[in-house]
Structures are given as C-alpha cells and as structure tokens.
Amino acid sequence: GQNIDQPTEMTATEGAIVQINCTYQTSGFNGLFWYQQHAGEAPTFLSYNVLDGLEEKGRFSSFLSRSKGYSYLLLKELQMKDSASYLCAVRDSNYQLIWGAGTKLIIKP
Amino acid sequence: IAGITQAPTSQILAAGRRMTLRCTQDMRHNAMYWYRQDLGLGLRLIHYSNTAGTTGKGEVPDGYSVSRANTDDFPLTLASAVPSQTSVYFCASSDGVGTGELFFGEGSRLTVL
Lengths: 109, 113
Prior knowledge:
The complex is a heterodimer. By secondary structure, chain A is mostly beta strands.
C-alpha cells in the first residue's frame, strides 16, 4: 500500500529552527508537496520538490531524497504565526496526491 | 477576489437527509477535487474532475456523488447522510501547469446526527 509518515506533533521555541520529516512509500513518484494549515483554515501551498536536493524559499526550505523516500521541511527563525499543521503529500504514478496526516507544530515563546 | 468559494461553511444535518455542498472557482482551473479531512488522518480524496464534463472516483467515493457541468462549479452531494460522513470537506482546484499545486476553499464543516 501507499503510505506517508510524519510526526504527529512537534514543539519548538520562537526564534529557533525546526525540521519536520516525511517518509513515503508510494506507487511511483511525480513530486512532493508541503502545505501549511492553520487551525480551522484551508491548507496553503508551501513548497514542491521533484528532484533531489534543497529548495529554499525565505525562512522555509524543503529537502528531497528520492532514493531514501524522504523529505524534510526546515523552518528557520520561528515566529508564533508558524504555529500550524504541516502536511506532506506525494504525487504518485497516476498523478494522484497521497497525503500524510500532518504534523502539528507548536511554537512556544 | 479570485479563488474558491464553498457553501455552506457549516451545517448540522439529520441522518438520512440529502445534502449538497457547493464549490465554485473563478480561476478557470481545469481540475477540481473534493477531499474530506478527519482528525488523525490525511486528506482523503472523494471525487475529482480533470475537466468539465468528466468525473472520477477517489479513495473514499461511497455515499457521495459529483457533477461537473461547467468549468467553475463542482458540487458534492450526499444522497442520504450517515454519521460517518461527519467531517470537514475541502474543495480544491488545480490548473495542472508547473507544479500543479492545489488551491483550497475554506472548507465546509458537516455534522450528521
């Protein structure tokens, strides 16, 4: 079966750095997405990786290793507004998205 | 403001009743999707449409139906609601260009009693 694994919850301190991991087993691979979802709101797109390596976008970076079935989202200089759930999703060989259950990130002052 | 509009935002429904969740987008995206989101589970695809006039079944289609008469509208119907359909429902669209990222509506919280 297809599976996306990510930690259920993480806690970090304002101003620090946090890394959220995502491992996947899917039928084929056509890209990996990270979305941010604040409580009670819709998911919003953060990043997309299709080739191995690091994609940097401001305070957020996303890394992909296709051979290891692994990605991480790196958040730097954490702010209170970064408190949210972070969803990992992989597009499979049928171009359908397989979603992880999300990681709830709690930022403490 | 361009985007996706869902209605209603919240609804309490008696079991056995029929319910239609509406979704309209003004971005002229070809692909549209309906997901449900339940605590502890990832987003699960109910139905999708790659273009107007076509629809397909997702991971959890039973008890739901959709139609895509035009590009903008993609309603989701629960013919006879059951308590297990209590969930938050998200409509999304994609233009299929570049990354093909999804744009989501604000969600419809449905409670079936």
